[in-house]
Amino acid sequence: MHHSKQNLKVQYYLTALTVVVFALKVVVFLMTHSLSVLSDTLESVVNIVATIVGSYSMYIAAKPKDKDHPYGHGKAEFVSAAFQGSLIIGVGCLIIYESIQSYFNPGTLHNLGNGFWLLILIAIINISTALYVMRVGKKNKTTTLITSGKLFLIDFFTTFSVAIGLLILIFTGIQKVDSIIAILLGGWVLYDGYKILRASLAGIMDEADMALLENVIAEINTNRNKQWIDLHNLRVIKYGPLLHIDCHLTMPWYFNVHEAHQNMDQFTDLIKSKFGDSVEFFIHIDGCMPFSCAICSIVECEKRQNPFQKKLNWTMENVLANNKHQL
User: Fold this and answer.
1) Is 176 in the same domain as 30?
2) Do the bridges between strand 230-239 and strand 242-251 make them parallel or antiparallel, or are there none, so unpaired?
3) Are 231 and 247 in contact (CB under 8 A)?
4) Quick one: average pLDDT of 284-293?
C-alpha cells in the first residue's frame, strides 16, 4: 500500500511536469519556427495524454482484489503501457510525414540561439526526471512508472537531438538539416514506441519473463532445502507490482500435513525474502515416488527404496516441465 501511494504521487508529479515541458517547447517553436522543434512538441502532447492515462491505470491497479478480479487489477498497467506505446508510434509516423513535406518545402527559421539554450534546459529536466522515475519504478516493480520514465528518457534524447540540430543550423545555415533531424527523430520515436507496445502486450498475454524465472530458480537452488525433493511445473506471472507463482513441490510421502505445510512456508519465505512481500503462491504438494529416491539427498530416510545417485540441479528446462523428474 505504501508503494501504491508513492507511485501515484510520482505519477501525478509527472503529469504536471509534462504540461510544463510542453509549454516550454511551444515557446521554443514560436521563437524558432523549427519543424524539428514542432515534432518534439508533438511528442510532448503524447506524454501529457500518456501520463494522465498512466495515473488512472495506477489508481485502478492499486485497488484490492475482489470477486470479479481475484488476481487483482495489476493488468491495468499493461493496458496503459500498450496505449502509451500506440500513441508514440502514431506520433512517430506524423513526425516523419511532416518532416518529409518540410524537406522539399523548407520554411524560414528565427532566433535559433535562444531556442538552443531553452532546449538544453528542457533536456536537463527530462533526463533528471527519467532517471528518478525509472529508479522508483524498478524499486516498486511498477510497469507504469517504468514506462513513464522511458517516455521522459525518449523525450530527453529527442530534445537534445533537436538542440544539436539547431546548433548545426546556426553554424551552417543549411535549413534542410532541420528536416533530416526531424526524420531521424521520427524513426527513433517509432522504434521506442514499438518496444513499449511489445513489452506491454507480452504482459497482457502472460508471456514468460525468462530473466525473472532465471532469478527465481537461482534463488531456490542457492538456498535449497533437502526436504524439497523435486520442483516442477513452475510458472511465474506478473500482475503489475504483484508476482503470482505456481509450482509443484515434491516432499517425502510420509510427511503429515503439518510437516508439509512447514516446509512450504520455508519455500515461500525464501522467495519473499528475495522478491518482496508482493508475491502470492499456488503450491501443489506432491509425495515422492520410488524413482524419486535416485535424486533425494535425505540420507537418513528410513523409507528409501532405491539408492541415491545424484542431486538434480534445477534449471529453466527441467522445472518448467509438467512431470516429476527422474534419472
Assistant:
1) yes
2) antiparallel
3) yes
4) 92
